[in-house]
């Protein structure tokens, strides 16, 4: 979520600095620092997850088809939320991945990659980890959905775009996939306790 929101903030700052001769203040620097710290924590979390995974016997782990289908559908629908505009207006061209590429677009690309990665990996994760990953993806798509109520006042005559509806659908599908993964986790735990 951090790159998605930070890119929009930094885009506003860059525009003001270049166009109006404004100066970047502490908020802009804090946003930049937050992005760098967020990237560092993602790298550290990835390394820690890899090390922790080396200590776990994964020979019994199988992909869950229900989670696979739900997360694949969620990934596709959620991806469209980042490709299509959430807000439309007569004289407004929102920053996008394929149209009007700007600093904000890098946040959209990062969020799209995160959502697609979560959808691709969740069915192969251990159930509890997969459920957490899918919940995180749902939150990222939810931030995209919230663009309409938070930024619609910028453009006169604004209306919901196709991206909003795909975003809502993506959030619902990710939540359903997370629920399916959590149920599998509960069933696995119950089977483990029953065996012991």
| Overall domain count | 2
The value of Rg in angstroms is 19 Å
* Major sheet: arrangement of strands: 1-2
Derived structural class: mainly alpha
In N-to-C order, the SSE pattern is HHHEHHHEH
Low-confidence segments, given as residue ranges, are: 192-196
Q: What is the number of helices?
A: 7
% residues in beta strands: under 5%
Major beta sheet, specifics? 2 strands, antiparallel
Shape: globular
Helix content: over 70%
Query: Kindly state the mean pLDDT as a whole number?
Result: 75
- What's the N-to-C terminus distance? 41 Å
Number of strands: 2
Characterize the structure shown.
The protein is an all-alpha fold and 196 residues long. It folds into two domains: 1-55; 62-187. It has helices spanning 2-20, 26-54, 65-83, 103-121, 127-145, 147-151, 162-195; strands at 87-88, 159-160. Strands 1-2 form a two-stranded antiparallel ribbon. The protein is globular, with a radius of gyration of 19 Å. Residues 192-196 have low confidence and may be disordered.
